[in-house]
Amino acid sequence: MVLVATVGVGVTGALLAWRERPKPGADPLVLFLVGQCWWSVTLIFRINAVSLQSKVFWVDVSWIGVALIPVAWLLFALEYAGYQEYTTRRYILLYSIVPAITAFFGLTSQHHQLLYTSSVIIQENGVATLTRTPGIWFWVIAIYTYLLGFLGALPLLQLVTSRVNTFRGQSLSLLVGLLAPWATNVLFLLDLLPTAGVDPTPIAFAFSGVAYLGALTRFQLFGATPTPIRHARDSLFKRMQQGAVVLDTHGHIVDINDQATTILQTPPDEALGQPLKQVSPDLSALGRTARTGQTIFNPSGTSKSYDVSESLLTDIHDRTIGQVITLHDVSDLLRDQQRLEVLHRIFRHNIRTNVQVILGNTEYLATHNSTAKAETLKKHALEIQELSDQVRAVIDIFEQGREDREPLNLNSILREHVASIRAEYPEVTVEYTHGPDGIAVDSLFNVVCSNIIQNAAQHNTSPNPRVAITVEQDGESVLIRVRDNGPGIDQNELALIEQGTETPLEHGSGFGLALAAWGTDIAGGTVDFESTDSTGTVVTLRAPILSHD
Prior knowledge:
The protein is an alpha+beta fold. The chain contains 18 helices and 15 strands. It folds into three domains: 2-227, Rhodopsin 7-helix transmembrane proteins (Rhopdopsin 7-helix transmembrane proteins, Up-down Bundle), CATH 1.20.1070.10; 240-329, Beta-Lactamase (2-Layer Sandwich); 334-548, Heat Shock Protein 90, CATH 3.30.565. The strands form four sheets. It has a five-stranded antiparallel β-sheet with strand order 4-3-7-6-5. A five-stranded mixed β-sheet has the order 9-11-12-14-13, with helices on one face. It has a three-stranded antiparallel β-sheet with strand order 8-10-15. A hairpin with a 3-residue loop joins strand 13 (526-532) and strand 14 (536-544). The chain crosses the membrane at residues 61-80, 92-109, 136-160, 172-190, 202-221.
């Protein structure tokens, strides 16, 4: 009757688990309970059998369920705890090799002595019981079963201390369901139970079934599961926007996400297990001081800037077991700060200077009729107007940078600007050598090219002013060179563009160059200025090719 109750409890649990499919762990739990019921049913038939042959038959058949139980238990525990990467078809086949061999040996035991070396019936108190002497494979499957049971218990033991009450209840119920038959079987193998040679482990499954039913009903086994926890943490680490490098106490890289490998320009296989100071000496030096304040890391060969922060990893005993170095991309922030500094300089210095000159000359004109002073007023008013136009152009660039932009044909852009400059500055000789037909670039280069060509013609004070424009394809980019024979660019202006800062005693005259640099940067290109007093200026734009018409 106890065995019948065991089967009833097992079937009930299997049906409840079946209803939860395809939730993680549901299928393996169904197989586990099916294996348990199979073992119990075969034990019922074995007890009621009379002849040696029939008793041996039911023992041999029972190995199908016995072999299924440890594999199903391990798969359930792994899926339930979120270790699905170890439940793929390849791993299932690996786990099932020994149990499959065992089931085969059980069904063919009459032809060998691997599972049992002998089988006899002993009469005790008028009851015929089967006694079998274990063979070598019996101990192999016994050890293997306990090994899988132990491996399945490990992830559940981690959840016993979970801060979620439901998970604690679930894991404890499942562990009780494991320990009851486990302890019973150990006692039987040690011959410490008075069961007349009958393995009472299936009877212990009655306690397991009750425990599993409690986990399914009282603790909502498949209603609230810890399965996503491990995957979420792993996913957050891998997909976080910041680069992250995990180090052990000796400074070796033990984990690294994709963002960090991109930043350090190192494949994961070459970084893992290596000292950080070997993979990135600069980052290693910064990491030691990152806790004292903001530290900026600039990887060699890139224009990116990263804020480096370090946090220590500690265990439950507050011992330091490693550290995490986080790399947050602050390139845009620093560029915006640079742009604000330039704009601040424009309004603080240039416009204020022009306004002061205008006010001073206005007072003079109030009492004197001076043509020279009037021209001075006009000049500075036009400079303010020019600055206003440039500010408007900068605002337009920033606004376009936040929007989706359509590619424009490069040759069409340049032909239009060349025609406009020739009409506005007829004294300037403008030469244009167009590049390959059909190249399309970001529409921001329309504003950038207009600004650079305009500056080359407007500020060219050479007796025979010339501007030469050439286009050359370079792989997936196109090089646009604007060369003039003017006086060159003031070094303060170049320093402002290259460094993004200015000194209190040195100021740029405007931000036409900054406009070109910002627009190029937003469009994903680069700009290079070469300027001398004797040879003039060469501005080289590198623009990504978006399409070929």
